[in-house]
Each structure stands twice: as structure tokens, then as C-alpha cells.
Amino acid sequence: MAAGAPRIFVSHLAGVAAFDPNGDQVGRVRDLVVMLRVGRRPPRVLGLVVELPSRRRIFLPMTRVTGIESGQVITTGVLNVRRFEQRPTERLVFGELLDRRVTLVETGEEVTVLDASVQQLPARRDWEISRVFVRKGRKGGAFRRAKGETLTVEWSAVTGFSLEEHGQGAESLLATFEQLRPADLANVLHHLSPKRRAEVAAALDDDRLADVLEELPEDDQIEILGKLKEERAADVLEAMDPDDAADLLAELPEDDKERLLALMEPDEAADVRRLMAYEEKTAGGLMTTEPIVLRPDATVADALARVRNPDLSPALAAQVYVCRPPDETPTGKYLGTVHFQRLLREPPYTLVSAVLDDDLQALAPDAGLPVVAGFFAAYDMVAGPVVDEAGSLLGAVTVDDVLDHMLPEDWRETEFHLAEDDEGAAAHGS
Questions:
Q1: How far apart are CA 173 and CA 98, in angstroms?
Q2: CA nearest neighbour of 235 among 214, 205, 257
Q3: Same domain, 128 and 225
Q4: pTM for the model
């Protein structure tokens, strides 16, 4: 190995932008693909898994990487856009090697892998994992940080990477992707093995897991929920938006559904049951039961304080709904909507009842998906009120839920902005 050849810790590559020679960003690094070798020879780095802006994951061979420096990866500009599919002989560094329990050859002591460094071989374009950063001591659980001496050792100084591990942790993997949005972390989980996916889900806290579940395909949602203990599954369902929880529960067998609902807090379960009473592709089936509801004597300052809640989605924070008591859905008489922009233009002491948009036609709970989509298109809205025949606010539909039901079921796996030519595309790793 060349003296002075820089070692790069793989954790520093997570999410790093990949650029072509013209300086145009082509995607972001999501993992490294390596091939384990016989004996104690360091594994060869075959390439990088790069996520394109369309969320397609492709394989970028290391032979097409011309530089890794200053938090960026430079490529030759020639990319094969065929979707990456892992081969049986390959291992993903982030997905499979981090958090493994391996053994120090010299002492026989078990250690946990926290990171690994890669290095380019001299006079070649080959790269290999040269060292691993490990921690001695017991593994940390989901709610405690493990302690112990950390050290960096040569790859040859540890053994155990080639063995399948049961109960592998996920702390280092999660730390690597800590800053990802829920949708992007969901994409990471989707591409892990079922075993690894369950381990990562177990390590996430309830709120984070709920956010991620809402962004996953239905099959992944059911698989993850089924591997959680029932009490925790109920807690995660409570942390989800009621409409997403209702959609997920509707896909479960009746007995499982009823057991989970019984374990949920009564108020949370009542909201979900109410949503499940509506047809899936209607305003009632699409709505959330937790919009911002204010009484007519509330002020603009009160409304803005509610809008500032960081747990609200941008769509739900775009307007408040003014109703007579009770304040929880289903409310008393719905009076109208106040849009966020209007709140910004009014003095803080102004009553919300004085700035109502009461001309906006509310959605009926049995309104079908085309009617709901037409509402958003006609009024340039990102959310809309759902009101029953008695004039009570039942909830609000947001545009993201409408899109989710209008797009193909496999839309998360479909690229809308990238044309692919499979003819002549070389297999990854070549």
C-alpha cells in the first residue's frame, strides 16, 4: 500500500454528493459494496451505491471514481443507470458490516464495529477496507449508550465478518443516517435485508419509526409492524398520523387489527376506528382527524402559536379551522378557514372570526378521490376541511395523501424523471 495514501472512514461518505467531471451533481452516496476475500485479506471495495435525485439506486464502480476528497466523490461521468441489485457474494458496509460483533484475533475478545476505513492501493484503481474502528465491551441497547474502550485495528486483526449474525445492533448505522429525512431513511430501510430492516426498526424510537413507516411501501410496513412486540406496535401506531395508521391496520387480519386497537390509548383508537369506517379513497378515508381547530374568540397570536408546532406537517400548518366547541373532531359547527398568509397580515390581537374564509366549499366525507383532487386543483389548496351534514368538522385532507392514493401503488419504486435504456447496460461490478 502506498505510503501516505489517505484513509477515509466510511461514515464520512454517508450522504456525500457525487459529481461528474463538469461539476454537476449526479446523486448521493448511500452505501459501499465490498467483496470479502479468503483468509484475512482485506475486502475489496467494488463500488458505491449512489442514490439519484429520482431515488433510484445505482451502482458506481470504483474504477469510475476519480477522486474522493473534501466531502465529495468525483466520477468519470459515465454512469450505468440500471437499478442496483446486490449479488450473493457482495456485502454492504453500512447495511451489513457496521454494528457487527466480531472477535479480536490476538485476545479472543468480542468487539463491536463502529466504522471502517478504505484506502486506495498503489499504482492501481483498486480500493480495499484497510482498518476497522471497534469498541470493546457490551453492546448498547435501544435506550442506553454502550461504553467501552475504542480502538482502530487492521482488518486482519479481527475475525467474524463472514458469519451470519443474529441480533445485530443498529446504533452505528442509525448514527450514519441520523440527518436523513423520514422519506430518505425509509428508502434506506427498504433496500436492507428483512433481517437488517427489523434490527434497524427495533433501534428507532417510536416517533422516528412512525414517521418512517408512513413513507414505506405497504409490504414493508406490514413486515416491520409484524416483527415488533404488540405493545410497541400499538405505541408506534399511536405516533403515526391517524389516517396512515388506519390505512396500515386495514391491511392486517381482523384478529391482529382488533388486538392492536385494544392496546392503543382509547382516544387514539377511537380516531383510527372512525377513519376506518369510511371507504379508503374518499375524503373521510383520506383525512386526518388532527387539524388545527380554534374557537371564534381565539386571536391571530393564538393561531400563529399553534401553527409553529414543529410536529405539524407543512400542509396542516397552512391553515387553521374555526369551529364552535367542542374543539376536538368531530367539532361543533364549522365556521370557516383562516389561511396562514392571512394570519401573517393581521395584527396579533385580531380575532380569527374576523378574518375567516367562509366561502370555501368544504368536502363531504363521502366525496370520492376525483372530487377531492378537483378541490385542490380548483382552489390551489394544500389542505381542505371535511365537514359532515350536521356542519361539524370531521378532519382535514392534505394534498400529500391525495397524491399518495392517485399515484401507482409502486410509485416509490418508479422513476418519473429518469429515462432508462436497459439495452447495452453493463451489469454492475463490471
A1: 6
A2: 205
A3: no
A4: 0.69
